[in-house]
From TrEMBL:
Record SUPFAM superfamilies: Periplasmic binding protein-like II
The entry's keywords: Signal
Lineage, opening ranks: Bacteria, Pseudomonadati, Pseudomonadota, Gammaproteobacteria, Candidatus Reidiella
Keyword presence, Signal: yes
Any Pfam family the entry gives: Phosphonate-bd
Signal peptide: 1-27
UniProt superkingdom: Bacteria
Name of the protein in question: PhnD/SsuA/transferrin family substrate-binding protein
Length: 278
């Protein structure tokens, strides 16, 4: 929701997060849209990466926008469910959930698509993904989208695989190579680039998902929606976003289509508090 930035800033300051006043706060009673993103970086790094773009969007739109980084996913998801964030940059499953539950609309996204693959050792006798029930599987920690898309294949919560959380795609491969698990959940593009010797594909669905996306609350009017979209796709906007785009190994944003997120929010159903109202 739109609210006083200083009230949120004060609570964040109490958490000892070093955020500077470079975000350009004008007055204590000024209302701001709150921008946040998935906590894949420290709060300090998040502010460093996103401040140039957020300040630019504030300037061209005439609407104050303030960055509010989350320290971890617990804080991030709690704030999200409570509608604390107005503009958010994160994965398509969160975007789909916000569209259904909070009335968000997608603005732009990173180019490309996300597809999951499940890989097993070449010697594995497992031929059906359902046979991984009760078996150890190397994956990223939930609510990572790849992990949630994998778990969607197991609708009985007592017959799910045992997920071994690791960090980084190299970590997934090393986890499986070390014999710690029966399978690993990867992204298709990493499977295609890696040395596949000793591994084979178990599961490679056709379904793809849109890349990381910026969405916005329905509390803003269409004019502001259009201003922000245009700014994000402009050359100047891309220049301001250069640091974060480099982080995600992309050169630009592309326009987002609402249809691409249809049903994607259901991936979060296993996470407490994210069950969609049906």
């Amino acid at each position: 929701m739109i609210r006083s930035f200083f009230s949120r800033w004060f609570s964040l300051a109490l958490l000892s997060v070093a955020v500077t006043v470079s975000q350009g706060v004008q007055a204590e009673d000024e209302e701001a849209l709150v921008f946040s993103t998935a906590p894949t970086h420290s709060p300090e790094k998040t502010v460093q990466l996103y401040t140039p773009l957020v300040n630019y969007l504030s300037e061209v739109s005439g609407q104050k926008i303030a960055i509010e980084p989350a320290r971890n996913y617990l804080e991030y998801t709690n704030n999200m469910r409570e509608g604390e964030y107005d503009i958010v940059f994160d994965g398509p499953h969160f975007v789909g959930w916000r569209m259904e539950m909070l009335g968000h609309a997608p603005l732009v996204r990173l180019p490309g698509a996300i597809r999951i693959v499940v890989v097993v050792p070449e010697s594995s006798s497992v031929t059906d993904i359902k046979k991984l029930s009760g078996k150890k599987v190397c994956s990223f920690a939930s609510p990572n989208m790849l992990t949630m898309a994998f778990l969607q294949q197991f609708d009985n919560p007592v017959r799910q695989p045992v997920m071994l959380s690791v960090k980084g795609f190299k970590g997934l491969v090393e986890c499986l190579k070390a014999g710690k698990a029966e399978a690993a959940v990867l992204r298709d593009k990493h499977w295609e680039k890696m040395d596949q010797a000793g591994f084979k594909l178990l599961y490679a669905p056709e379904r793809s998902y849109p890349e990381r996306t910026i969405s916005i609350t329905d509390e803003v009017d269409e004019e502001l929606h259009e201003k922000l979209t245009t700014a994000l796709l402009s050359e100047e906007g891309l220049a301001k976003a250069a640091g974060l785009l480099e982080t995600f190994k992309r050169k630009n944003f592309v326009a987002a289509s609402e249809d691409d997120y249809d049903g994607v929010g259901e991936l979060l159903d296993p996470i407490w508090g994210f069950q969609l109202e049906r």
